[in-house]
Design goal:
Elements: H1 2-41, H2 44-60, E1 70-75, H3 77-82, H4 89-100, E2 107-110, H5 121-130, E3 134-140, E4 146-147, H6 151-154, E5 159-162, E6 166-167, E7 174-178, E8 180-183, E9 186-189, H7 191-199, E10 205-207, E11 211-214, E12 217-220, E13 228-230, E14 243-245, H8 246-251, E15 263-268, E16 276-277, E17 287-288, H9 289-301, E18 307-308, H10 311-330, H11 335-357, E19 360-361, H12 364-427, H13 433-464, E20 473-476, H14 477-494, E21 498-501, E22 508-511, H15 513-529, E23 536-544, E24 547-553, H16 561-566, H17 575-579, H18 588-598, E25 602-608, E26 612-620
Parallel strand pairs: 1-14, 1-15, 2-3, 2-15, 3-5, 18-19, 21-23
Antiparallel strand pairs: 3-4, 6-7, 7-13, 8-9, 10-11, 11-12, 16-17, 20-22, 23-24, 24-26, 25-26
Helix pairs in contact: 1-10, 1-12, 1-13, 1-18, 4-5, 7-9, 10-11, 10-12, 11-12, 12-13, 14-15, 15-18
Length: 623
């Protein structure tokens, strides 16, 4: 019974603490999973997965078709063949400009650098001179200098835009356009942006750390990443930006009407020229550079911007996903938890898609990794908790069986006395009155003892299980000690052991008198049980500083330090105790410890092998 009380008390005292500790471990695990998911997603491999997810969503969440504002004046294979190859590009461009001049395009952006003189320059210059809102191209050379069109061309342009394409270093796919590039203090804006400015009457570009503004159009692009702007390419259903080659204009002049009021992007589309790039829509077919710039213009003109999700939001959602994964397994396991975990994972997959549909690029890897790691860690945590609970249940079963065995053993003694006395009375009808009265008194005393034992057993069980509040009465500890010494005296006399009640503590304590009497009596009987005949058990104590101290010291077998550290464990008996021949279950001291703990006190042990032991109770003094 004692050890059961000690075990249950440990549950009462530390059960909530253990539960909180387990929850804290789960919370820490989820935080680690979120941090691990974020860290792994920021690696090169993680970014590659994010890029692949971006391309998938790009193809999945295609915008509705629209009527493009731009059109391509193409120098295709047929055109280059007709005008004598690459050397005839200027003459071809000049003819093309002449053929569309009458329909008054809104602007003309030329994706040819034109840094050198050529025999066809006069004709081309004439075409440039008559072009409305002409924007020419430039490029930054590896030596850090700008390659510009020659002055005779540049003077007819309203602006010069740079034509650098930003390619992903892992797969060479063009997903974004840098809106600015600089060499020393000479900064140039992208061709598409300069063309948009020209169409808007030369509106000033207003800069901020987070965006650019042209007229009433705000272009999200931070200066921290070189003003990168994600391009919203025309969806496959539109078959790209409309395109008319110069050779087709030669054959069908009426096609010039398609350029009326349009923003014209003139450049090479022939596959023999290396100015071709892959896009998220590419199916192994590269896009000509001129179409790349036209798509960038359409992105700006239609305000179809894709912006990156704020880092703080991504981090916060990762921790929320990890928390949800932990909650899925916090209160149980089985199909409900598995379904909840599947829902958490599904949410982590839906967030990037829902964000993309609203123009926000949400990285796929952080949430996915966090969900996978969090679910795995939470499931493992729940598995360990279940195993621990199973082990605890098995231990409780064993504890209960031992407790019942102890109760039966303890109850057998008074029952035997009652049974024997009653048999004597019934067998000897002519028993002297004095003997009969003695037997009756014994039966009465043992019956009361049996009732007290049952009551104590039940009280300890209820107290340990948290089903009973301990009595709170004021009583004299010295009076309890004296009563216990009187009860223990016959046992001491049988072994010729003297019980010396030296200086007893006079302070009162508050608590359950019967339980405290049980604890003190247990200490006394233990001291007598394991002491040699002719020795002495001393009981002494004092009070002061709001506490009462009581010590029981014997001259018995004693214990070493290792045994002292385990003396209050359930069912633990020292080797010397087992070898002494004294009967015991190893649960009495655990009862004592629990009773003292329930009274807000502590118990200390001092012992040496062969020199006896001293048990000291330190209790709060009643005010």
């Amino acid at each position: 019974m004692g050890n059961e009380m000690a075990g249950n008390a440990a549950i009462l005292v530390s059960g909530t603490m253990q539960q909180r500790k387990a929850h804290a471990v789960l919370a820490a695990l989820m935080m680690v999973c979120a941090l691990a998911g974020l860290t792994m997603s920021w690696t090169a491999l993680g970014r590659q997965f994010d890029t692949s997810a971006y391309d998938y969503l790009f193809r999945l969440e295609t915008p509705a078709a629209w009527q493009p504002e731009s059109i391509i004046l193409a120098l295709d294979e047929e055109t280059l063949t007709k005008y004598g190859g690459l050397t005839g590009m200027r003459a071809a461009l000049a003819d093309g400009l002449e053929k569309i001049r009458a329909v008054s395009p809104a602007a003309i952006a030329v994706d040819l650098i034109l840094p050198d003189a050529s025999p066809a320059d006069d004709q081309l210059e004439a075409g440039f001179a008559q072009a409305h809102n002409l924007v020419l191209s430039c490029d930054l050379l590896p030596n850090g200098t700008w390659e510009d069109p020659i002055e005779r061309f540049r003077k007819h342009a309203v602006a010069v835009g740079e034509v650098h394409a930003e390619l992903d270093k892992f797969d060479a796919v063009s997903r974004a356009l840098p809106l600015e590039r600089a060499a020393a203090h000479d900064r140039r804006w992208a061709l598409a942006l300069e063309t948009f400015v020209a169409v808007n009457g030369g509106a000033q570009i207003v800069e901020s750390p987070q965006d650019l503004s042209v007229g009433g159009t705000r272009i999200p692009s931070t200066d921290a990443d070189g003003r990168l702007m994600r391009i919203r390419y025309t969806p496959p259903v539109m078959n790209g930006i409309p395109r008319v080659s110069i050779a087709e204009l030669d054959r069908h002049p009426a096609l010039a009407s398609r350029f009326r009021g349009k923003v014209v992007f003139a450049g090479v589309t022939a596959q023999t020229v290396s100015d071709r790039w892959m896009t998220p829509y590419s199916n192994s077919v590269a896009m000509p550079g001129i179409e790349f710039h036209a798509n960038a213009y359409e992105t700006i003109a239609r305000k179809m911007f894709l912006v990156d999700a704020p880092l703080t939001a991504v981090v916060a959602v990762c921790f929320m996903v990890a928390g949800a994964a932990g909650l899925a397994f916090l209160f149980g396991a089985g199909w409900p938890s598995n379904l909840a975990a599947a829902f958490v994972f599904a949410i982590s997959q839906m967030i990037p898609a829902l964000a993309f549909a609203r123009g926000t690029v949400w990285p796929w890897m952080p949430g996915t990794l966090t969900a996978v790691l969090g679910i795995a860690a939470a499931a493992a945590w729940r598995h360990l908790i279940v195993r621990r609970e199973l082990a605890f249940a098995e231990n409780e079963k064993t504890r209960y069986q031992r407790s019942m065995q102890f109760a039966i053993h303890e109850l057998r003694t008074p029952l035997t006395a009652i049974q024997g006395s009653s048999e004597l009375i019934s067998r000897y009808g002519t028993m002297p009155e004095a003997k009969r009265k003695q037997m009756a008194d014994l039966i009465n005393a043992e019956s009361k003892r049996l009732a007290r034992m049952i009551e104590t057993f039940l009280s300890v069980e209820k107290l340990s299980a948290g089903q009973m509040e301990m009595k709170q009465e004021r009583f004299s500890l010295a009076e309890v000690v004296r009563r216990c010494m009187e009860r223990a005296k016959p046992l001491a006399d049988a072994k010729r052991i003297a019980i010396a009640g030296e200086t007893l503590p006079e302070g009162d304590v508050t608590g359950d008198r019967e339980l405290m009497e049980y604890a003190v009596y247990n200490l006394l009987t233990n001291a007598i049980k394991y002491s040699p005949g002719g020795s002495q058990v001393s009981v002494f104590g004092d009070s002061g500083k709001n506490e009462v101290r009581l010590s029981v010291q014997d001259q018995g077998i004693g214990m070493d330090k290792k045994e002292v550290s385990r003396i209050f464990e359930k069912f633990y008996r020292t080797k010397r105790a087992e070898q002494s021949g004294e009967a015991g279950t190893g649960i009495g001291l655990s009862i004592v410890e629990q009773i003292v703990a329930q009274h807000g006190g502590t118990i200390h042990v001092e012992s040496e092998p062969g020199k006896g032991s001293r048990f000291t109770l330190v209790l709060k003094q009643a005010l």
